[in-house]
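Handout, section B. The chain below has 451 residues.
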Amino acid sequence: MTSLPTNRAKTLKEAYRACDVKPLTGDDIARYYVDLSAVRNTVAIDDVSTDLDLQEPGEFNTILFTGHRGCGKSTELKRIQSRWENEYRVIYIEFDQELDVLDAEYTDLYLLVINKVADDLTELGLKFDQKLLHSFELWFKEVTKETEESVQLSASIETEASAGAEIPFISKLTAKLIGQIKGSSQQKQVIRETLQRNLSRLQADINLLLKDAFKKLRHKYPNRYQKGFLLIVDNLDRIPPNVGNHLFFDYAPQLQELDCTIIYTVPISVIYSYKNVSNLFSNPNIVPMVNIYEFNRSECDLNYNQQRLEGVARLIEQRVDISAVFDDRQRLLDLAKASGGHVRQLMQITRSTCRTAITRKHSKVLAEDVTYALNQQQFDFERSTPTPEYYTILARVCIDKDIDKEEIGQNLLFNLSVLEYNGSSRWNYVNPLVKQSYAFQQALRSIQGNP
């Protein structure tokens, strides 16, 4: 067991701040990262690196990376970025910061890709082949009815021209279109329909530019980036099930047409579809919950696996001096149990517990603070459960350890009422915060009393 950091939080206020739910980045990865490989199936994470390793220069791949929101995907993707930043020129994109997660189309992604690659080339002091670029820009002006003047006058674009670099028109135009797609439903529809009518030309020209960028990259950096661009599109897992199904099933070929390597984060609801996403992409890489249970398909109430429970608790111990902040270490284990092995949920309920203790003027977290904080999180789930019938479905999940592949099942996975665990077998279980609610217990008793 590795030693714990000496600068862990020692007060409730420090613990509250240390348990921020944001993905780890930069120095925080080294400070707070906990290797869960001993207690979580990490094949999905390893498989992504294997795929990137097996690729030869000039080969491109589309990789799906999925798991529940908050399970630790973004932190792992940041580590993948760091691991491969010499062999690939990595461009990390937070989709929800660029476009609307409630309404995403493949043409939006096309614009985003060429915009980010163009900006990256400018940052590196490289330029597209002028003949290719001029041809693309002329065509783009024609189909979008935009001009240099109209783009320049747009208030929606902010460029870094102050750095002295010449910003290509394609960067300015795509930035403007992306801004319009995010901000105006009427303009969004016009732009999408225009690009979809000219899809073959759009794909061909973007790929010509991507290949040219790859060539320029390898020429300038003979000892780096020899496998070209790697685009990591994070936070696409935040798109709702209906949007995810539309994007990854209806437009699977289009998402795989671009001549660069792309990792898409995918809503786990997409994986739970009778359409079978593996028929359209290579097998998705799924990051499961940390399985804190002793799996037994015939039991409704599962026992805990102490080693895995301690592994989850270590996520907090890495950040917080438990003896200084909690009156008893059992409080931490209670939080670990309530997390269901879900990383973000553990951070949320720990933070909420610290906040409760601060509000009540306690010097340390007490049992009553944990109970109150967990109840508040439970109430949030109750408010987001649409109808009482959903509890009957949740009770069946608890008994059967599986979830239906239709719309309701996808929604329950999306809102984290149901969690996935896998390893030697794949199974589902009800989120512990949902499981403790009265409505769920009533539905479970009803089913067990009437098999």
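Note. The longest strand covers residues 62-67. Compare this with the example in section A.
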